Amino acid sequence: MNIKIIEPIGQSEEAIRSRLADLLEEGGHRLFICDTRGMTDTELIKNVSDADILLLSNRPLSRVVIEACPKLKLICVAFTGIDHVDQGACKARGIILHNAAGYAVHAVSELAIGLMIVLLRRIISADATVRASGDNRELAGHELFGKTLGVVGCGAIGLQVARLGNAFGCRVLGFERHILQVDKVTIEQVELDELLSRSDIISLHLPLTADTRGFIGRKQLTRLKPSAILINTARGPVVDQPALIEALVQNRLAGAGLDVFDMEPPLPPTHPVFKAPNTVLLPHVGFETAEAMSAKADIALRQLENFLSSEESS
Questions:
Q1: To which H or E segment does residue 280 belong?
Q2: What are the catalytic residues?
Q3: pLDDT value at position 221?
Q4: The pTM is what?
Q5: CA-based nearest residue to 295, from 107, 97, 162
């Protein structure tokens, strides 16, 4: 089979080839590794049209590309989200699509807690004050301890945020659209409106689907306390961004920590979010730790190994 890794997945080419060497030799498979992130779909097709298996991270994979790969049987995404791959095209062709669920649970959950503390303790402003030879006047912040933390989306990352919230002494509320299974987490399951109205901090951990696009909109934002802060380390479009900016500008929300936006960074200098006060803005780095990068590659490669082994035994 032709196996093509079409962008960096988190481990070096040397490490990947060493890991797969025996499996490739025994099965007579061919491994190609290249970086196609700057290619158009037309250019990409020239490189992958003969692929049986594709491995990628978050490079978009359109229906046009998938349909131009007649031998394609498996796509391994070294990433949690798969909204950048045309799932309808995969389903229509019977192509197996795997993601790397769980690789960034600790990375994203720790960043979410970090954003909460940065906002509550005004760390960005304090740093700027020191650099401007200022003192600690007018920099009184708030503690995470004793706050009500609302977790919207109680999958693996949401539950880990809840555990960390427990450790910091927060009262944790949780909302999950599906059945919520809680293991060793102190969390009170409530409806969304109640969570929004009671929480001092709202942390979003929803996947981006047709149902969750704009899930936190103008109506939901009006239910928040003016003293509340919103953290989004999930997907930008789960929040109505113009409505969020409006709430911040009008002081109907105390602050926001955003790692994701309505578009992938880099954001243009004229992007409206830059006018929103009391924000901490990050360029989508929630998943970006050395440990998580290695873990996502390991998951994707293990899926590849399992597929090749099952093919050989069938």
A1: strand 279-281
A2: 235, 264, 284
A3: 98
A4: 0.87
A5: 107
